[in-house]
Every structure is written in C-alpha cells, then in structure tokens.
Design a protein that fits this description.
The structure holds two protein chains of two kinds. Chain A is of the alpha/beta class. Chain A is built from 16 helices and eleven strands. The chains are: A alpha/beta, B alpha+beta.
Chain lengths: 368, 348
Amino acid sequence: MKYRDEYRTPDAAREYADAIARIVTRPWTLMEVCGGQTHAIVRFGVDQLLPDAISLIHGPGCPVCVTPIAYIDKALEMTALPGVILCTFGDMLRVPGTQSDLSVARAQGGQVQVVYSPLEALTVARQNPEHEVVFFAVGFETTAPANAMAVYQAHREGLGNFSVLVSQVLVPPAIRALLERPGNRIQGFLAAGHVCTITGYEEYEPIAREHGVPIVVTGFEPLDILEGVYRCVRQLERGESRVENQYSRAVRRPGNAMAQQVMQTVFQVVPRQWRGMGGIPRSGLGLSPAYQSYDAETRFGAVSGGAERQGECLSGAVLRGDIRPNQCPAFGTRCTPERPMGVTMVSEEGACAAYYRYRRPAGGSARE
Amino acid sequence: MSDRCDNHCPPMNDDHDVVKMAHGGGGRAMAELLDGIFRPAFENPWLAKQHDGAVVDMPGAMAFTTDSYVVRPLFFPGSDIGIMAVHGTVNDLAMCGARPQYLSAGFILEEGLPLATLRRVVDSMAGAAADAGVRIVTGDLKVVERGKADGVYINTAGVGQVVAPQPVEPCRIQAGDRIVLSGDIGRHGVAVMTAREKLDLESAIESDCASVAPAVLGLLAEGIDVHCLRDLTRGGLASALVEVSESAGLAAEIREADIPVREDVSAFCELLGLDPLHVANEGRFIAIVAEDDAAHAMEVLGQYPVTEAAVEIGRFVQGAAGVVTASSIIGATRVIDRLSGEQLPRIC
C-alpha cells in the first residue's frame, strides 16, 4: 500500500537505528505525544531497535484516556433520559464511569449508537426528529474540525434536536504543562503528526524556544518514528531546540486553514480538566457563544467536577509519562482489558492496552 | 398481535407476504411455508419422508458439530446468512478431519420478515449445501413476535464421517510443527462491517465465505498427517493461534510479513484502527503439520481455488502455552493476543 509499506521496511528501519546509535553519546529521554504513535512503537517493536541510551516515554495523547470521568458519567446520565439517543465513537463504549460504562448502559436498554463520523450523528438527528440526539465530541485537534462541522451544519439546517457533549482538548498546552511539572524528565518531543496536519506547528515554536526542547512533528509508521527520534536526538546532541517537521508528506507549517476556520467559528478556547493531569488553562475547546444552544450541557445540565477514581490504578502516572504501563503492580494481573482498572487499559490507543496486547509479561520482553 | 390469521392464510405471494405468527403455529400456514419454500429448495429423500428426524447410515467414527448464525445484515458482499450457516458448519466438520455429510437446520424467524427474503436465504443455503456436497435432512421452524429477533436466525448442526487416519486435534501438535495458513485474511469481517455500517468503499470487499472441506479432504487423501486444523472465524487468526497453542501446551512463533492481507482489507483496517489478525473470516483455516510435510501440504492446497494462496506463516516451539509471538515487519517481536471484547473503531 502506498504511503505505508515504504515506511515499514526492515532494512531502512535498521539503517535508522544504526544512524541513531552512531550519533548518540549520552542518555536522552523523549516523549511521543500521541497514543497512535505509542501503539505503533509497541506493536512494531520500534523501541527494541533503539540504543539503550534512548528512552521513549509515552504521552497523554489518547483522547479517550484523558476525557475526565465526569463526562463519562454525564453521558451515562443522558442515556437514562427518555427520548435521548447518545451517539459516540466506538472506543468510548468501554471507558468506565463512576458506576458503569456506555456498553453496559446500551445493554440495559439505553439508546447508545456507535457512529463513525459526527456527520453520521446528524443523520441520526434528521431521522429521529422526536428524539434529542447528543453527539459525544471528544478528541484532540484531529477530531475538532469534523465535530465543529457537525454543529455548523446542524445550525444551518436548523436541526434543533441535535447537541454535542464537548470534551475537546489541545496538545500544545499539555506539552507546556508536562514541561512545567517539577522534576520533569522529558528532553524532547515527538509531536503528533495528525494533530499538526490541522493546526500546523507554529504554536510549538515558542514552546521549543522557551523550554529549550527539540520538538519533531512525527508520523505514525515505524520509519516515521525512527526518523523522528533520529532528528530529535541529533538536535539534543548538538544542543539545539527547534521545531522540525518529519511528517512533511502531510504537515505544512500553517496547517489546514479551512479546518482551522470552522474550528474557530464553532469553538472557543476554554480551560479543561484532563484525566491524570488535572486542570490546564486554555487547554481545550468549548462551543463559542453563537453556538452555545447546541451544547448538551446547556440542555441537560452542566458536567459537575467529580473526583477522579482513586485506588490502585496508576493510569494518571502512565498518562504523565511518569511510569511505563508494565511498571504498575496491577498490570496484566489484576488489570487486563477484560477487567480494566483504568482508562489506559480500556482504550485501543491507551498505553496499558498496547503493552498488554503486544508485550504481556508472559512474552517476557516488556518486563523492566 | 393484530394480524394473526390462524389457519386461513391465502396462498403465498412472495411479493407482498411476510412471515406471520401462524407460520410457526404447526398448522396449515406452516405446512404451506415448508412446502412452498423449504422442501423444494432442500429436496432429498429424508425430507420427503416428513418424519420427526432423519435416519442416516454412518460407519465408523463420526464428527458432530453445531453453530448458530445471527449476522446483520442478512446479505452482504460475497455471501449471506444462508451460505454462512451451511459453510460454517461444514467447515467445523472438516476441521475434525471428517467428510461433511448431513446437516440439520433450525430457523427462528421474526414476524414480518418478507417471504421473498426468506426464500432468498433458503435458496442460498440450498446452493451452498449442493456446493459442499451435504444434505439438509431435518429441520425446525419457529416464529417470534416482531422486534424479538433480527429477521432470521439459523442454527445448523452437522455430522460427517471421520476420514483422517489419525486424530486431528491440538494435543497432537509437536514443537517444530509448521503452521500453514490457507489464504488471505480479514475479508469476511470487513465485508460484514462495511455492509452493516453502510460504509461506502470505492469497491466492495467480498466475504471469503466458502467451504474448505474439499481442500482439507485433499490434504488427507494425499496421506498428509495433519496434526491439527482450526478454522478462523470470530476473533480471527490471532484468537485461533492463541487457542490452539494453549490447548497444545506450546508456544508459537509467526512471521507477520508472511501473512497475506489484501490491500483493500489492509487499508480499511488501517483507517479504523483494526488489526487484520483479529478480523473474522469464514473460509480460512490453519493446518498444523510436521516440518517435513509443510511443502507438500502447500502444494496440495495450491490445487484448490479456496486455498490456492496457502502459505506457511510460522511454527510451534517449546515455551509457555498460549504465548504466540510475531516477528514484526520491521524485524522486532511482539506478542499476539486474543481479541478482547468487541472490535471498536477508534476515534482518530
């Protein structure tokens, strides 16, 4: 397949790994921001090819994982209301709320419909005029334009029975928050290529400058990630801290202007709570005043804070990159995808699920 | 129930008629349905007797299996529930080293199902049974109220004479045995998913649903000592490998780069974040044979259209039971796990 197979060839992977080994003179700790990258690293064993001096730590970029439990609870509450159809992306179904999850709510008769795109939720709203249709709008900048478009379209059509429960988050403020934490270990970032196809990477330039960290906009194939690591390490070894674009086949510095325009029309920047990272100012999107009436929280009541679930689960530390999934004592024993303690084990893009799927303790290779 | 018609239904007219509660009532309506749709399609001496069951001759060891079919939508590119209900059970018999011979068919019909749809399903079953060389010799029919089922559910059970000289089962697998995969994976699951979710693709990906019995019987006829067979259905290749290696008490190693996945299937899986190793198949299996027999097995399978792309993908080794590792396409290794829960498309 074009644009894929050429980024998965073993010889080229080995060449990149050798090139990294040649330039590295001391230990470096890099974070890949996006869950898709974590998944690829663990699935293809990219980290196994890297010299020991390079540690990759896995970032918070799993949209399901960082959605606060209070939003899951709110969605669950809506499924219990008569006449409400909740439309959601599939991987929200098994994310645990305080008491239950959406797959259980569906099994108990709640109207939960899995959609593949927010525009499909609009179709559901058109076909069910007697129902209130709520779309669960989660994700990073990658999902924001399509989610914004659904609201924009609903407004144009005067589709009064459509609304969105918004938990949209933004990557750059999270990177800043990670760098500003006391005891931060992260020396360089692989930024999420798909997010940057939308936003471009101008916003990352001051972060690199002010914090003295290289940031490499990186793709998702094994060779992309190896090249991203190579470029990041090369900057670190030279004492540089710039934004570089490894994923130039998809990303331009200004990003996608049309996508940004619809986002800016429908959404405004707001403070957001992140699971595992707490409140971060200006780190999310909410509906702008002109589109407020499409906010499910306006119609069905605001999401109330809600404490994060405590207990043995260390998913917060995993999301912050403080520990690797297999360093959690519950990993693979008391916590599995069938009986997850936390969201990072539930989501397809969660780091714990990736480790469980590709590196169970029985496999031996992941124990450190 | 507003339109129960007891025993006074007019003659069947597929264009307008639908399944009614009376069709399951055991009376004249049911007899008309059986005579109008089922008997002509499945016609054979056993059904003609109109007995409570079928009496068949079966010398020697017999394999016996059952499966239920609840797919939605009923029709999807390349196959339908009727074809699946025959081939699925036929393939289960073949996996036991048996020649599939006789099937039963139990139907649960939803009130309101158009008779034309039912006829299409039944005709598909008849065609698939003829292709696979099996007879549908006994059956059952029930009707449930509208909303209590999804059009039609089918259960088939099957029996067949065991022709493999040695048992075909996981406990016969030895370290060093080779794993031969019968063809490309993932097409059935993708075909059903695209039809169910009405995902428009440039070109339809057709299900791989097919009887694999001729190819399996071919292996046995060539005198290949097949240690174990497993068809790849729900849970895909990954789940089959993990299950077999657990039962065998051995570990397995596969080479991901050697697993054939059609480009359109692969692209679909990339888009939705699915692993082709977890996607369902209906006409694919793995055969586990001694190292020395692997080349011969592939040569034999190469002669049948359904298995012409058979390929060796790995082997069993001493190690922890159920641990299947793959050498990834960039040369590192990873663990292959069962599918957990249902397959859910990701957000971005």
